Amino acid sequence: INAEYMGSPQGVSMMEISFFGTIGGAARSFGKGVIDLVALPWQRSEKIECEVRLKLNGALVGVVSVLFGHPGFFMKSWLMWYERWGLLYTELEEGQASIWEEEAEARRGLMWEQAMVQRESVGGEWNAWWWVMWEQVSTWMVQWREYAAMWCSMRVKIIRATRVHTDQGAHVVAELGGQSYTTCWQSSSAHGLVMWHEECVLSTMGVMENNVKIVALPMTFSLWAGNSMIGQAEISLRELRYHLLHSTALSLGDGLVWLSVEALNFGLEPQLEDEEPKLEVLVQNATSLPFADSDGDGIAEPFITLRVGDGQCYKTTTKTGVDPVWDESFTLPLHPSEPAEQVLELCVYDRDKAKGNHDDLMGKLTIPLAKLCRDDPAGYRLTLRITKQGVSMQNSKVAVRVCARGFGLPRAVKATTQKPN
Question: How far is Cα 129 from Cα 114, in angstroms, rounded to an integer?
Fold first, then answer.
């Protein structure tokens, strides 16, 4: 079949193949399949053989082998691939965007090589068409980078719900710009409490207002009991501040849902004029902790204390085992004068249950606050410095996440101070 094919502005490139037969003199469809012509690897050859799966009512009924051939067609497929970039990008998370941009650069480089070959072997009209095409692709590359720069991502954490009484299991659905996240189904307690502690990252296109990138679309949350919706509500994202956690309790029908939203790469600048300096610390977990076993029960019972300077001492709960998980949050107020000059000290203890004995200090670690960027959470996985005599050195690690509020370096500046101990 000889056919002239040009993609539409929307990049539509689907070919449908139907298989018919005759029964009793009447034509009858035995199945059909589709193939995306743009997706074929035209850059490798001028002739492509592929298999099309034929289905009828969703069931596979056969496979047809098709041979396509068209000199130069792969160049047109590349152009349509660029046109479809915007549609592809809406399906990607922010971290995957660079992969597609690298592939685009590779395709453009291969186009250049092919253009040089054609320039030497063919006449003027064909050569001119190649150069026009090359200029168009270069323009699309610029447009793509502008598009990618407006991509906005936010971290959503769904914590718990109250006043939910159901025996079918409850879940929450978060929706933004065509993307959605659904929590797992959890049963409610006798008091109507449902716990999730789940988080996700949702992304959408932003807009520029007063030289600030913001998200104009609202985010929708719905609470479900089984297959029945209890309630639905929206929250505005226009006032989100960069890397500043926005926590709220959202009323969804009869239920109340606690959640938080954090703008990862967009939002208004933090307001620091009236904000007291403080340090937010999340003690996450530890691995391969040593223990003294002073009470002789053979069980490690670790806990961690937190202190900045001579300020108040905070303490985690006591866990069991050498690989404890805490996930406990603390907010440490700091002295208003030069808060960045202070140091966060964490001490790991092994609880001693024997009456009159002190808990065993196993090791310490410190984090200088001078290297923190304001409103920019930083994660650490630090090696414990052993201080207990008679305890063998081992690869003990403690994972924490800290965030400076009301002080710190601007987020565009990287600190050059020493590494934490």
Answer: 13
